[in-house]
Amino acid sequence: MRILAPAKINLHLRVGPPRADGFHPLLTWMTTIGLHDTISLEPLGKTTGSLPVPAGEAIRMNCTDPSLPTDERNLAVKAAKLLRSNSNQSVAIHLEKKIPHGGGLGGGSSDAAFTLWALNQFWHLEKTIDSLSELAAQLGSDVPFFLHGPSSICRGRGEEVRPIASPALARWVLLILPDLSMPTPAVYKQFDDMKLGQMSEIEGEPDWNQWAALSSQDLLPNLVNDLETPAFAIEPRLARLRADIEQQLSRPVRMSGSGSSLFSLYDTRPEAADAAEWVNQTHGAKAIAVEMTPAQLG
Ligand code: C5P
């Protein structure tokens, strides 16, 4: 069984002051994009017939990116362990990585969510999306989004997911992948140290349907990411790159999640592709044009 696990971007990300548990209340609009990891599930080569498989041997994983752990530190393995409900279940997970790590694109979260979703079928568990979502929330704040997607408003610490319309016109993403890895907890800590975050900013909501109908030129000026200030304080090179590209493209450039990925939006593929080529050539940063909520990813 083979499935695609897409990346996300945060089109809009408002962050409130820290809660008692240390997490931050969010109001965010996330969409999937046409950049994905691929997860393959296969029966574990070693068969024990009808005998139970010992827990320590039931889940095997390998990954094309040698810098990622393939033991329980990997969110996909954690997801499989959380879902495994009896001793006859086993699986070999193969992960082909394309989504950069530390880019604010939710790669690990997407792998975990789609591992839950796929193993639910692979092991014939017949759990509902709501019950998978409860497990997903235990794995990370962004994980439940991927079970609902592809365009959703997320609240709480991210786990309260409400699907909305995808942008109708602003569908093409210039995605810039700087060679910088931003640690999410450090960005939130900097946010707290700078005493940022107003509860009032996340209480009300804009008219999302109206926003989803706007052209990229009209939508972009509405979009905010409250984690940019702390991320740019930690990594001034990212601040300079964003300012530079924004000025030269003459359109807003936003950061996704806690960084380091940057994006802008276009109404057509050729415009996004031209901008990506320009960023590649002038800034040496990897840049690609990808579609938002592409149909083949559901
Ligand atoms: O939930 P997840 O494990 O993905 O979160 C990673 C880190 O990001 C948390 O340890 C926390 O520091 C921070 N975070 C937060 N508020 C959120 C989501 C994440 O402070 N709503």
Structural account:
The protein has 298 residues and is α+β, with helices and mostly antiparallel strands. It contains eleven helices and ten strands. The protein has helices at residues 75-83, 107-122, 129-139, 143-148, 184-193, 199-203, 208-212, 216-219, 228-234, 236-249, 269-283; strands at 2-15, 26-42, 59-63, 91-96, 151-155, 160-163, 172-177, 254-255, 262-266, 286-291. Strands 1, 2, 3, 4, 5 and 6 form a six-stranded mixed β-sheet that branches. It has a four-stranded antiparallel β-sheet with strand order 8-9-7-10, with helices on one face. Strand 5 and strand 6 (160-163) form a beta hairpin. The longest helix is centred in the middle third of the chain and has 16 residues, at 107-122. The model has no long low-confidence stretch (mean pLDDT 95). Bound molecules: cytidine-5'-monophosphate. The site of cytidine-5'-monophosphate has 11 residues, from helix 5.
